[in-house]
Fold:
Amino acid sequence: MLCDICGKNQATVHLTEILNDQMSELHLCEECARQKSMAMEQQFGLSDLLAGMADSEKPEKETETIKNLKCPNCGLTYADFKKTGRLGCGVCYNTFSRYLGPLLKRIHGSTQHTGKSPLKVSNSLRKGIDIQTLRTRLQNAIQAEAFEEAAKLRDQIKEAEKKEEK
Amino acid sequence: MELNSLLNHTSEWLRGSGPNSDIVISSRIRLARNLDKYVFSHWANKSQSEAVLNIIKESAAKVDYLKRTTLFNLADIDNVDKQFLVERHLMSLEHAQKGDNKALLVDDEEIISIMINEEDHIRMQVMQSGFNLFEAWNIINAIDDGLAKELNFAYLANWGYLTACPTNVGTGMRGSVMLHLPALVMTRSIERVMAAIAKLSFTTRGLYGEGTQAMGNFFQISNQVSLGPSEAEIVESINGLIRQIIEQEKQARENLMTKNRPLLEDRINRSLGILKSARIISSQETIELLSMVRLGSDVGIVKDIDRRVINELFIITQPAHLQKKENQKISSEERDLKRAELIRDKLNIH
Structure:
């Protein structure tokens, strides 16, 4: 039997694929099978993560309410998000924040942005970010037992807090 | 700038210059941004996406860094031109497909490109030849600052820049480095390297980004995490990883040269032989063979062919580039003939 993809080499790998409840069989040579599995791995990473979200363990009633939760700005429901893996607008992040927090933690291993911020963000907000960033760094430093660094960060936080009070 | 004028221009990513350009083809940084309160492109209706396009167009015109750019409305250009832009890495495959009010802003040097109404309202990218992520970051950071003066971006203090897909939230940044790793592939060490990369939460993609397979020993490596570390920290972490892979590829090349030279010379010269004499050749085979010739040029086995010719061939043999050159739509079979002819032409000058 020849490989279904390249049609050149002898098929040595036999794969059963189930897509939308349709079962299909593929007979592949080693080379094509390897490429296919690489492609599959790349695709799976993201959709797995989004689909296998935390709400599977929640009682059914609550899951229903989550599904019907709707963003007041763009009308996207949580069910829409689960289907496409995409949010509808920036306000969605507030609307679904309870459920997005754990998801972001799973994807990125963090829920605190420390990078740049847009210039137009008001000054008070930016001060907030700076202090929050410093606190995150402080925690990291303590975990890494970098105490000298931690002491420096602690002083910076104190200073920033003083400024904020003024 | 006319789209056709790009035909006579070497893409930044194939210029073949810059640090470590024997192994690193190009470095690229992409930032995703969305306008505050406006519905994201995939969820927007026609009038909403039109409003977004107009706002971004007007604002971009005021940014110094974007003075020498041209805007293409994707609705106005045909499929060959779209594919042509994808082949030049100026926009994604996704951007070439369905959707309203999509546009592309490209600068004359093909270093900066901005996709409007792709998955996010703005997807800007800066490309540098060779291993040069920090320089790419400096340029794109300045463009982003310029745009932020004109536009209100969707942003939360704790979660950073808000994007259509939660995987891009935070910095909205993806740094990618395109590597040419023929020796690691030949010595079958590549799987080990890729497995290690995956464990470190970086992703590997093929020549044309998401969903494409590794072809011709080209691998694109990028960060997966965008929320948590700062932009500079992300760049530094990618750089650290890339430095290690460069070392491994160098080692593998040296091993092949010292322990397996006849085999290496054979592979490279056979590849060159096919390219010089084939009458029918697919774009995939072309890339695979050119990859070997490029390696030959890097290690000094191929001496009589200009590096620039090899680099140029990678792009001008692509389907849309061939059709633009012939100035007509041609079938895949005809392209394979034309491609072989073009390659013979370029390689058999002496």
Remarks:
- Chain B touches chain A through 50 residues (CB under 8 Å).
- The CA atoms of residues 46 and 100 of chain B lie 6 Å apart.
- The first strand of chain B starts at residue 24 and ends at 33.
- Chain B has twelve helices and ten strands.
